[in-house]
Write a structure and sequence with these properties.
The complex is a heterodimer of chains A (308) and B (375).
Chain A lengths: L4 E12 L2 E12 L3 E5 L6 H8 L7 E6 L2 E2 L4 H7 E4 L11 H11 L4 H14 L15 H13 L5 E5 L7 H16 L3 E6 L2 H4 L4 E6 L2 E6 L1 H6 L5 E5 L4 H8 L5 E7 L2 E6 L4 H11 L9 E2 L3 H8 L4
Parallel strand pairs in A: 3-8, 3-9, 6-7, 7-8
Antiparallel strand pairs in A: 1-2, 1-4, 4-5, 9-10, 11-13, 11-14, 12-13
Helix pairs in contact in A: 3-4, 3-5
Chain B lengths: L2 H17 L1 H21 L6 E7 L4 H12 L3 E6 L3 H10 L4 E5 L3 H6 L7 E4 L4 H29 L23 H32 L1 H7 L4 H29 L9 H25 L3 H18 L11 H7 L3 H15 L3 H28 L3
Parallel strand pairs in B: 1-2, 1-3
Antiparallel strand pairs in B: 3-4
Helix pairs in contact in B: 1-9, 2-7, 2-9, 3-6, 7-9, 7-10, 7-11, 7-13, 9-10, 10-11, 10-13, 10-14, 13-14
Classes of the chains: A alpha/beta (308), B mainly alpha (375).
Chain lengths: 308, 375
Amino acid sequence: MKGETSVRAESLTRRFGNFVAVDAISFEIHSGEIWGFLGPNGAGKSTTIRMLCGVLEPSSGTAQVLGYDVARDPEAVKLRIGYMSQGSSLWNDLTVEEHLRFYAGLFDLHGAAGRKAVEEWLDRVGLTERRSELAGELPGGYRKRLALACTVLHRPEILFLDEPTSGVDPVSRREFWDLIVGFADAGTTVMVTTHYMDEAEHCNQLALIYGGRIVARGTPDELKRAPDVGVTVEILSAKNTSILDALEDVPYVLSAALYGSSLHVTVDRREDVEQLRRLLGEHGFPVDELPIVTPSLEDVFAALVRPA
Amino acid sequence: MNWRRVWTIAVKEYRQFFRDHRTVAATMLMPLIQVVLYGYLSSDVRYQPTIVWDLSHTAESRQLLQAFAQSEYFSFKYTANSMKDVVRAIDDGDALVGVVIPPDYAKLLHQKKTPQVMVAVDASDATAARTALSVAQAAANSVAQRLQVRQLRMSGASVREIGIDVRTRAWYNPGLRQEVFIVPGVLALVMQFTMTFLSMSTIVRERELGTLEQLVVSPIRSGELILGKMIPLITIGYINLTTILLFAVFWFRVPILGSVLLLYVTVFVFFFTTLGLGTLVSTIAKTYIQAVQMIQFFLMPSMLLSGFIFPVAAMPPVLQWASYLVPLTYFLTIVRGIIIKGVGLDYLWSQLALLTLFGAAVFATAVLRFRKRID
């Protein structure tokens, strides 16, 4: 049922000793959404997902998944979700088909129902031809697809995907995302973490996590138009790297990064653009004009997580 | 308990185990190598290389040396011409025993005095040295006794040789064969070793690989997962047990006097102790290497305290108490009881009860800890 709350986290916190990995975050995910969780490594993405899956107990705060409290009723949660962890979830010495049959058995899909599910997913992720190959000998993209098939075999209502496309070539990533979008269209809620900003564009809702806190949230478009992400201009120059060096430690520059053959520089306010133009001239990189562009999510992200 | 899930896990484990040919070979061959090595290495301390410096050179001195040789504990490999030769041979390690007979040996005997004969042993290995010394003493005593009787007879007295006839019976192991004692012990030792290591690797490897997390998120319960993983290991354990027993009976001629069925039942109980132990360690260790290091802390003392080599009855009281905390002690008593002594449950029930208690406690702790340690 679209629009219902699938996941609700309130002040969800996880500490490891003195280190606060996830710091009192609250959010809601509605059914049928693709909810993207963005952030650098170590920001707390995986820890949050693991708490939602009932693998890790929250230190404080609560989380409900499909109405079940993850701390009190983790087994009820586990029956209804699919979780693809960041690390390998495959055994190198089992074949593609053996994996699927194993997961079918774990989720009580026996006999004809199990066989049907296995055949269906072999077909949907394009592994029918490779059914007898060992997982350890599959190329990266196929491995991820097999892992996904294992995760969704039991038709979960929510999918938690923790960096599902890391280490996968661009073509495989695209195919993978086609599958994810397909699930969402069929009504499955998807929570996905990534640090590929282009992937974030596929999401309905995004949350940026940094240092265990959610620093921004909204649709991709809302995030790009947010006032606190500054103004992004484009610089076309042959001396990109030298300019990058010159912009280091300039207080009003929130972020500066290569963007294809050009540079994207995000400054604090619109007034800073003129200042930046002059500064570039002083350093021997005269530019006539600095066109303001729509920031990429990468620019937004870099501006938001800039250390204060 | 959902048995189909347990079976799903077991099928996966069987597949993975038998697909890995190297592990299969190691698991199947290692027990046999151990049995063969221990079986052959456990022979008695006999025929110790001995150097002799006989200054007497008389019929009497040769009679004494012959008595030594007949004991089969000494093998006269070298003769010396000086004390230096004796010392050098023992220092070098060529000889372990040195015998020196003084020049006046025969003369003193005839004068009815007591000649002194020196027997020096390399006592680095105290047990072997003790045996050599007492055998030498006994050989000399019997020579002296015979001389005494002969002299009395020659003096015209009517003497009957008085002796105490000790009728010895070596119960359970009439041939006094060391391998009869050692091979059942090796069986127990190998079972413990193989089972703890296999259970450790099946769980810790899964943690290292990252697949454990995937299993934890599935609806499977800890108990189902552990049981599913244990079923193939128990099968492997029984294969090992059977090959060792066949080897013991047909190669080393160690007879099994008791009930083989009882032996298989007892081993089942022992599996829970060892598999539980391996599981317990893998709930603590993060990597396989850590687990191996941890388990050594248990396996090493348990081998020494269990009575595998040193009899528990001969230990200082503190260590005796410690040995009762080692499940291998009970298992060893039962295995030896069944194989060597041929006794049954009527004698072994208390040991079996304690072993069961241990197994249940260790296994339950492992399952409980496993549930909590998933992070």
